[in-house]
Amino acid sequence: MSHDQYPDTLIRDILTTTKTIALVGASPKPERPSFGVMATLLKRGYTVIPVNPGQAGKAIHGQTVVASLADIDVPVDMVDVFRGPQQMGNVVADVLKMKTLPRYIWGQLGVRNDDAVKPAEERGITVVMNRCPAIEIPRLGL
User: Within a domain: residue 1?
Assistant: First the structure.
């Protein structure tokens, strides 16, 4: 898949079929983008599981933080990535070790690494990068 553009139909389908999101790089700091995006996703009715090894066991927006994707014991539909593009390969490797693979990996604004996501795409995971669901949801009127 080309990661230069995504059809609105694809983005709409992802955002309307997703129910549970693992948010990698979740932060308890209000000034961090992940903090605001997580709040928006929760307000929109998504279940969000924050992932951050430095915050494991604590809560962000009332949700218990897990250290890694491997610590999530329920299936997730999407892994939302708030890590630098150079970390995308590590995130993909962790995703591919999950008990149940997610349908989607979503790289936030500035998070794009085409080569790193190829193994996930080869396993049938749809990848969107350099986009923000908190922007896309209102843009698409969802």
Answer: no
| Residue 64 CB partners (closer than 8 Å, separation 6+) | 50, 57, 58
Phi, then psi, of 4 in degrees rounded to 5: -80, -35
| Long-range Cβ pairs for the range 36-42 (8 Å, 24+) | 36/134, 37/80, 37/82, 37/108, 37/132, 37/133, 37/134, 38/63, 40/133, 40/134, 40/137, 41/80, 41/133, 41/134
Integer Cα distance of 72 and 83 in angstroms: 18
Are 127 and 3 within 8 A, CB to CB? yes
Number of domains, the chain: 1
pLDDT digit string (tens) for 47-81?
Answer: 999 999 999 999 999 999 999 999 999 999 999 99
